[in-house]
Design goal:
Layout: E1 4-10, E2 14-21, E3 26-33, E4 45-46, H1 48-66, E5 73-80, E6 86-89, E7 99-100, H2 108-116, H3 120-127, H4 136-144, H5 149-154, E8 158-161, H6 163-171, E9 178-180, H7 181-184, H8 199-204, E10 214-216, E11 219-224, H9 227-230, E12 235-241, H10 242-249, E13 257-262, E14 266-273, E15 284-291, E16 294-303, H11 308-315, H12 325-331, E17 340-342, E18 360-362, H13 370-396, E19 402-406, H14 413-423, E20 426-429, H15 435-447, H16 453-459, E21 464-466, H17 472-489
Parallel strand pairs: 1-5, 5-12, 9-10, 13-19, 19-20
Antiparallel strand pairs: 1-2, 2-3, 4-7, 6-8, 11-12, 13-14, 14-16, 15-16, 17-18, 20-21
Bound molecules: adenosine-5'-diphosphate.
Length: 504
């Protein structure tokens, strides 16, 4: 009897293995952290061997500690940190260099060159992405530019991959060299419509086709887990980038359904159906997943400072003792008292796109107190998310119907209620907030034939629904004031050559 599904959740700071039952309920998890390597300012690397060993060990320890029989595992799914790039030798498995992590900015000059060569619009229309060092393609070019590496690649000796590919090659029998459509859509090398590598971009970045993996569906038999890992060849039946996996884990399988992960930053993805929607507001268009012969697309936007503003209140301002306390403090007053905080600490992303914006507090009066600032900070998380959702709705021409929440800050009931009020939409919070792992496990279950799409939709549970209670007039006033506050925050940081305002 097959009773279980397992997700390997390979994240930026830890590798985890998570056990689910066939109803999508989490049973147990085991995780191991690995070191972050910062060789220079702005550079971030991981040791691929550490990724591999922590991932393999966390799986082994999960199975050992829960004492489940590996024969009872129906399938394994892999979710992974996206855009992180590795290049390794086909014969020895030895990486030519560390993995270059998604956060790493070292390839900004390569992107600048692409833009100077007039590729910006091409990249936007073909890949759905904004030309940026964040994506894996320019990281691969940087690796190929290391001495002697491109020659080895041209001789067919090397394999490139994002972490899904690297794990599949190392953990599965027969070393398959594959990636899934969702991960491939984050390389800035894939044509969003054909789901094939794009020759023009490969030529522009001097990437030999032979280093690239085959692009496959997200949910299908990828291969059998190497027998020495668990003693039995458990089928691996899904791979997916973490944010898309979380969209699936939240069962947002129909157009208009969306999820927001309230972590350090916020990641918002909306399912837009089976044709890609190109954004007018600088949101990313991405493959959500490809399964059962159909490609589902999503619009994606992120808030740079989400839960981090709560950490700032606690650590820099000393206004609260814990993140949790922010809820009671915000609820100790009836409203924000006209105070707005725009946490543009590092500029503003979509849909504002102003790297010169800086953090701003407006509306202070003699009566403003600590609670107003705390409340304004929490409100700013919801306001920034609402800005993204409004932009998504404009882009695809329909109003989304509900928002599903996860991430650490979704524990905050005030924040969730305020989000619902601000959007005029119900915000639903599931009992399992490990939605990234849940998505990969459910996807694997679907490909293994133990779950259907409908069952995945039906198994999704709501722990608490936050129903909008605010009147439209009050909501419009809050949104309007927020926009005025954002306008004040914009362009604050002096650009090079600007004159500083004089003090007289
Ligand atoms: P990440 O995965 O990005 O590290 P998590 O999903 O673990 O983040 O969420 C942590 C973030 O959530 C922190 O920024 C923290 O300030 C915020 N947070 C945690 N609990 C609460 C809470 N009760 N209210 C508001 N923010 C919270």
């Amino acid at each position: 009897m097959k009773k279980y599904l397992i997700a390997l959740d390979q994240g930026t700071t830890s590798s985890r293995a998570v056990l689910f039952d066939l109803q999508g309920r989490m049973i147990a998890q085991y995780g191991m952290e690995f070191p972050q390597i910062y060789p220079k300012p702005g550079w971030v690397e991981h040791d691929p061997a550490a990724i591999l060993s922590t991932q393999r060990e966390s799986l082994r320890l999960l199975v050992a500690q829960t004492k489940i029989d590996p024969q009872e595992i129906a399938a394994i799914g892999i979710a992974n940190q996206r855009e992180t790039a590795v290049l390794w030798d086909k014969q020895t498995g030895e990486p030519v260099y560390h993995a270059i992590v998604w956060q790493c900015r070292r390839t900004a000059p390569i992107v600048e060159k692409l833009v100077a060569d007039g590729m910006k619009e091409y990249i936007r229309s073909v890949t759905g992405l904004i030309a940026d060092a964040y994506f894996a393609g320019t990281k691969l070019k940087w690796l190929l530019d290391l001495p002697g590496v491109r020659e080895r690649a041209q001789r067919g000796e090397l394999c490139f991959g994002t972490i899904d590919t690297f794990l599949a090659w190392n953990l599965l029998e027969g070393h398959p060299h594959i990636t899934d459509a969702a991960n491939a859509s984050r390389t800035m090398l894939m044509d969003l419509r054909t789901l094939q590598w794009d020759e023009t971009l490969l030529n522009a970045l001097e990437i030999p086709r032979s280093v690239l993996p085959e692009i496959v569906e997200n949910a299908r038999f990828m291969g059998a887990l190497r027998k020495e890992i668990l003693g039995v060849p458990v089928p691996v039946c899904a791979m997916c980038g973490d944010q898309q996996s979380s969209l699936f884990g939240q069962a947002c399988c129909r157009p208009g359904m969306m999820k927001n992960t309230y972590g350090t930053g916020c990641f918002l993805l909306m399912n837009t159906g089976t044709t890609p929607v190109v954004s007018r507001s600088g949101l990313l268009t991405t493959v959500a997943w490809r399964a059962q012969g159909q490609t589902h697309y999503a619009l994606e936007g992120s808030v740079f400072v989400g839960g981090a503003v709560v950490q700032w209140l606690r650590d820099e301002m000393g206004l609260i003792a814990s993140a949790q306390e922010s809820e009671a403090v915000a609820l100790s007053i009836p409203d924000n008292g006209g105070v707005y905080l725009v946490p543009a600490f590092t500029g503003l992303g979509a849909p504002h796109w102003d790297m010169y914006a800086r953090g701003t507090v407006v509306g202070l009066t003699r009566g403003t107190g600590r609670a107003h600032l705390v409340r304004a900070a929490l409100e700013s998380i919801a306001q920034q998310s609402a800005d993204l959702i409004d932009a998504m709705a404009d882009d695809c021409g329909f109003r989304p119907h509900a928002l599903r929440a996860d991430g650490g800050a979704c524990a905050n009931g005030f924040l969730m209620q305020f989000q619902a009020d601000l959007l005029g939409l119900t915000v639903e919070r599931p009992p399992v907030i490990e939605t990234t792992a849940r998505g990969a496990a459910m996807m694997a279950g679907m490909a293994a034939g133990v779950l259907t799409y409908d069952e995945i939709m039906n198994h999704w549970q709501c722990e608490r629904a936050f129903v909008p209670q605010m009147e439209a007039k009050a909501r419009d006033a809050l949104r309007g004031e927020w926009r005025r506050a954002v306008a004040r925050a914009k362009g604050w940081e002096a650009r090079e050559g600007d004159e500083m305002p004089s003090s007289s």
